[in-house]
Specification:
Chains A, B, C, D, E, F: This is 4-oxalocrotonate tautomerase family enzyme. Chains A, B, C, D, E, F: GO terms for molecular function: isomerase activity. Chains A, B, C, D, E, F: Belongs to the 4-oxalocrotonate tautomerase family. 6 copies of one chain form a homohexamer. Chain A is elongated and about 40 Å long. Chain A has one helix spanning 14-32; strands spanning 3-9, 40-46, 51-53, 56-57. Chain A is α+β, with helices and mostly antiparallel strands and 61 residues long. The first copy, chain A, starts with a strand and ends with a strand. In chain A, a hairpin with a 2-residue loop joins strand 3 (51-53) and strand 4 (56-57). Chain A is built from 1 helix and 4 strands; from the N terminus they run E-H-E-E-E. Chain A has a single domain (3-49), classed as Macrophage Migration Inhibitory Factor (2-Layer Sandwich), CATH 3.30.429.10. Chains in contact: A-B, A-C, A-D, A-F, B-C, B-D, B-E, C-E, C-F, D-E, D-F, E-F. Chain B binds chain E through residues 1, 3, 40, 42, and chain E through 1, 3, 40, 42. Strand 2 of chain C pairs antiparallel with strand 3 (51-53) of chain F, so a sheet runs across the interface.
Chain lengths: 61, 61, 61, 61, 61, 61
């Protein structure tokens, strides 16, 4: 039943997202001894003005 | 004080969202013996390339 | 594929959680024209010292 | 390592987001005796049809 | 209506959480020109074996 | 800057969590062409009475 939520900068290709879903599902199921069928992946894309690190907006890095 | 967060495929109508907010708030308050006033609902819409199930991207289903 | 995440005060009974999962799944599927099979519900319980409203800690209300 | 996630109505300026990231990071680090370097802030913007309070859609308030 | 969710290492005092809720609410309302009444803060505490940075478990740092 | 949040049933070993953090960080960084240094992983453990699938509580499966 693992649910994986990824928040990342927008702009990745469909191919990257397809591989991300495939690989994270496979590896998580393998490590946790869970079924791949039960793994759900959700991707939240945020623009550079919507995240910050160490107090600095992504846009300003 | 319950906060309900729903992640779902984009494309639902305003009317569906209005009913979702109304019904989930009412039912959650009823079941938990909480006040409707304190229930917050947040909806996160994701495109078909931003979620996956069982290792397969929504776009490919 | 809706994923519903509920953050609420701890201390509810198993029976309340069972009904919450059942009813929110049924109503969400009905309103969104989705399959109940695809609805996932996750409950996060927080103690009164781990949430606040209007700047006041739950513990102090 | 605190991760701060803010869900808010869309439409704020870049300047507001820049200050939000700067101030929340600084205050969180100060209060928790943590390093600013380790604080991550993520902003999720939702439209008025994607949130509700007390059972009422933001759009209808 | 901002909802602020903080995930942090467990072990902080009630006093720290009280100040965190108070200050983050006040500053967020001020910067966003929102009412303090509408700000909700949720704190999720995780143990050192439940988070990682740069591929290393918190427990091993 | 990817932030990965995993909600899963409680009861996994530290060794499983260590490998989960290591592998998900490595694979995510590789697929997204991001630095491993910027990847944060957060694990939320929930008991069987705190999640449901298809309307059924985990405890009842």
């Amino acid at each position: 039943m693992p649910v994986i939520q990824i928040t990342m900068s927008q702009g990745r290709t469909v191919e990257q997202k397809r591989e991300l879903v495939k690989v994270l599902t496979r590896e998580t199921a393998r490590i946790l001894n869970a079924k791949e069928d039960g793994v759900r992946v959700l991707i939240y894309e945020v623009s550079k003005e919507n995240w910050g690190n160490a107090g600095v907006l992504g846009l300003d890095m």
